[in-house]
Amino acid sequence: MLRRRRAGTTTLGRRTRSLGVVGVCSAVVIAVAALIAVFGPLLAPHDPNASQLSNAFFGPAAGHPLGFDGQGRDLLSRLLAGARTSLLGPLFVVAVSMTAGVSIAIACAWFGGRVDRAASAALNVLFAFPAILLAVVATTVFGPGLVAASLALSIAYTPYIARVVRSAAVRERYQQYVEALEVQGLPGRVICLRHLVPNVAPIVVAQGTTLFGYAMVDLAAISYIGLGVQPPDADWGVMVAQGQSGVLQGYPAESLAAGGCIVVVVVAFNLLGERLSARSGSAPSPAAPEEAAA
């Protein structure tokens, strides 16, 4: 038992060292952000939607360390409550696009031939649509909201994941152990689920971590232009937009606080994604959807 504990501790230490100081700090920031997203509404000291216009753009006060926004609402409470939608949306995008992208990549690698060519042609069509433009069209057609925008981004991000994972899956597909398993009569679906998917998992995790940052920026932009989360619900993208009037009047706290939260979390995900990509020996993360479209 003691040996197992020591082995587990040693393995954890090696993984931590391989991430480096930057990677560990990024992981800590992400963990804190996740906890705030889960418990933020419970930790909020005040009702995030309670408005008192007499306190509009009032600075820090007792019980209100960040002051108030233009509607007289407590800024700290809105930041804590807004963390849930700001992180839940990107999480949904990553989960859906990673599931679809990995499934397509594994199918292309396993069957090859016509299946591979047909899937590649379909993915090339999706590459032509910028992610944020597709999200704007979806929210225009189906109405503003987080669901339509998240589904549109999930579709737009799928080919970027499939392209990277397919290369790794093809390499695994023609390894000798796969041939040996086929000779033993193991079904293809079992080989894929038990062996191919676990062996490409490090690349999948690295790509998903980086993709989270892209999705968070895109969803914040959608909310900023009024097509994502709708006021008065708290969301960091919404807060950046609503704080614009305060910036012009010399009260930038709302926009700066929400924008700073977005920047910190996105940078943490990107840095951790780079460290994980280096550990897994995968190709560099795919360019942001907007960059690839350009």
UniProtKB/TrEMBL annotation:
GO terms for cellular component: plasma membrane. InterPro entries: BP-dependent_transpt_permease, MetI-like, MetI-like_sf, OppC_N. Residues 83-273 form the ABC transmembrane type-1 domain. Keywords: Cell membrane, Membrane, Transmembrane, Transmembrane helix, Transport. PROSITE patterns: ABC_TM1. Pfam families: BPD_transp_1 (PF00528), OppC_N (PF12911). It is found in: Cell membrane. GO terms for biological process: transmembrane transport. It is a multi-pass membrane protein. The chain crosses the membrane at residues 21-44, 87-111, 123-142, 148-165, 211-230, 250-272. The keyword Transmembrane applies. Its main location: membrane. The keyword Transmembrane helix applies. Belongs to the binding-protein-dependent transport system permease family. PANTHER family: OLIGOPEPTIDE TRANSPORT SYSTEM PERMEASE PROTEIN APPC, PEPTIDE ABC TRANSPORTER PERMEASE PROTEIN. This is Binding-protein-dependent transport systems inner membrane component. It comes from Conexibacter woesei (strain DSM 14684 / CCUG 47730 / CIP 108061 / JCM 11494 / NBRC 100937 / ID131577). The lineage of its organism: Bacteria, Bacillati, Actinomycetota, Thermoleophilia, Solirubrobacterales.
